[in-house]
């Protein structure tokens, strides 16, 4: 049986205690109570791993070093302070427009639970930034980013794309992580038995994928929908028409290849019921450590040398391929639920606060990021109501 999109939204958002409109400012003062209500995991493997590089966070050192190392003209750093559950920030560098995504998530989280006082630097660009190791002098500093890599030390948060999609879910917009689950195309035995890819030319291996498709159309349907990095290749490889994402799942096998960094489509592909063939990558998102190759997806070499072999394996071993696809979908449904994302954000800030060596401050040039006016919503926060005297 397939549940509807609305059913999944209800499952995701139902919890013990009152339920408020997304714009209702009604934070739970007791963070442990809030975490218990959401059934937050006691342990997040990626958070634990990230903070091993930072037994102590020296805010004064960061205050002097970050602007010169990362906040120059072409920088994409936003300096945040959370104090008394209010959000303050200043931008360092020219390319910080994506702070609108971090702003909206921080504000949303602060409406739900009282945040610890923290002062941090968020990289709103694509690439992780801190490549020093613990053995270097000076050592690494804790930049928070939306993507990690095997050769960087950034603290990883959910990507702006997953974050925005989650907030859109709570605002009732249909094109989100949850809507994928109600639009996964035909049942397995009715899907087209081809591997499928559509995307931009943001990595050379994607061009190789299209060439493989031209040479092996009985196994693979791959196309580039927009050329920016390799415009000289368009005439040779051709340009594919844009295709609705839900239509991807008409195909049994989905090829996930990196873009500039980790492909942000990967969580969406995992939520479908096609088998995901994932390129081995130096980049990762916050939930990758919970996934196991050959249990949740089929790994392929970074060079794509074994892609055709893996597609043939899936065709021959149809039932095993179906089981891997199902296991991947189930774990993705658990990891990518809205409440898990909020739990993860809070766990990062909770750990960050424990490692801070001094108190956060509102620095020169910072401005308050205001909460939206909750008068536009039905907001009957029981924590704001005065106690009624018994008659």
Task: Walk me through this protein's architecture.
- The protein has 391 residues and is α/β, with parallel strands linked by helices.
- The protein has 2 domains: 27-158 and 338-371, no CATH class; 177-285 and 288-335, Rossmann fold (3-Layer(aba) Sandwich), CATH 3.40.50.2000.
- 35% of the residues lie in helices and 16% in strands.
- It contains 14 helices and 13 strands.
- It has helices at 5-13, 31-37, 45-51, 59-69, 99-112, 160-170, 177-181, 204-215, 234-237, 245-248, 266-271, 307-316, 318-335, 338-355, and strands spanning 77-83, 86-92, 118-123, 143-145, 148-149, 155-156, 192-200, 220-226, 251-256, 275-279, 283-284, 298-300, 367-369.
- The protein has a 6-stranded mixed β-sheet, with helices on both faces.
- β1 and β2 form a beta hairpin.
- α5 packs across α6 (160-170).
- The protein is globular and about 60 Å long.
- The protein starts with a helix and ends in a 22-residue tail after the last strand.
- The model is unreliable at 1-14 and 387-391 (pLDDT under 50).
Instruction: Give the count of helical stretches.
Output: 14
Q: Specify the biggest β-sheet.
A: 6 strands, mixed
* Helicity range: 25-40%
Poorly predicted spans:
1-14, 387-391
Number of structurally distinct domains: 2
Kindly report the average pLDDT value: 90
Strand order of the largest sheet: 6-4-3-1-2-13
Oligomer: single chain
The overall strand count is 13
* Cα-to-Cα separation, first versus last residue: 53 Å
Which class do the helix and strand fractions yield? alpha/beta
